[in-house]
Amino acid sequence: MFTFSNATQFRHHKLWLVFTAGIVTLAVCLASMFGDLKESAVISNLDILGEGSIAFLTLAWMLAALASRPPGTVTSLLTIGLGLFLFSVSLDFLDEFFHYPEEAYWISMIESYPAAVGMVVMTAALYRWHLEQRALNLQLRRREWDFRDHDAIDPITQLYRAEYWKEQIHKQQRSGKSAVLAIIDINNFSLFNQKHGYTEGDRYLHDIAQLIIMNLRQQDLACRYAGDRFAILMPDISPMQADIILNDIKASIQHLAFRHSQNANAIYTTARSTQVTLLPNQRLATVINNMLLELERPHDSAA
Question: Which Pfam family, just one, is annotated for this protein (predicted)?
């Protein structure tokens, strides 16, 4: 039903999978060791269906949480809380098959307690999940500006493609508001791909994209233009302020210590950029072409 996205995620969650199996096993052992099997005539199929469904769905929720989430505090709390709840509902389900003598009355008593504790733990997990999601939403707003069109997202950098950037520029022009356009180009990136391979190159571009997002304002838009070039739209900003942001981005890229998966030595690179102030009546194709020509001119590799 649920699959883990990679072997690393499975290894990280192996302990929790063992915990899940142990919870169910403990409930079965307690019921079989201290209880007596009921006669078939007194077993209610309707109760079995109802309580069995609750136990099965709780188990499914646990597996879904482990398969969908990375290791961390939220995942651990969710698994512990659901595990305690699963223990209680498993004992409740097994009650339909076993009758407990008076000396084992304590089994019936402990059915409810783990579920109550589990609900408290899950409440803490959901609160932490809320805080986590709020932080992720902030990053999404930085990437997506005020719009969402996930079909236009580049799978490597998780940024929008150039077409989306151009669409937002046209909207900005129609609104009559000022903006600065910029394109950032990674120096000698083709040599990086030749030396380290395209897989490592894609991973490097993803890391650079995160740096660009971190240095932009919430209302700014960053997209992948093409190859190793990133396009930026910064509304309501002066050219001087935009230049400061671009210099911060290039400095961050220059100091990014990228490590190849097979080598502990850090790899560094530099970037250059060009920018232009957007005017309402400018022809966008001409503006972008001039920016690309500017990037093609001879440059200092550290620029």
Answer: GGDEF
What does the alpha-carbon distance between residue 299 and residue 297 come to, in Å, rounded to a whole number? 6
Q: Which pTM was predicted?
A: 0.54
Last residue of a domain, one of 98, 119, 143: 143
CATH number, residue 260: 3.30.70.270
Distance CA 279, CA 235 (A): 12
Residue 122 is assigned to a structural domain of this protein: yes
List, in sequence order, every residue forming a beta bridge with 272; answer none if it has no partner. 185
* Residue-wise pLDDT tens digits, 204-251: 999 999 999 999 988 899 999 988 999 999 999 999 999 999 999 999
Strand residues in the chain grouped as ranges (E) = 36-37, 98-99, 160-161, 179-186, 221-226, 229-235, 258-259, 266-267, 271-278
3-state secondary structure of 284: helix
Residue with tokens 């932080």: 135
Residue type, 236: D
Which tokens is 148 given?
Answer: 């969402």
For 250, the domain range is 146-296
State phi, psi for 180 to the nearest 5 degrees: -120, 130
Pairing of strands 179-186, 221-226: unpaired
Q: Report the largest interatomic distance among the alpha carbons of the chain, rounded to a whole angstrom.
A: 90
Q: Which of 143, 162, 197 is the last residue of a domain?
A: 143
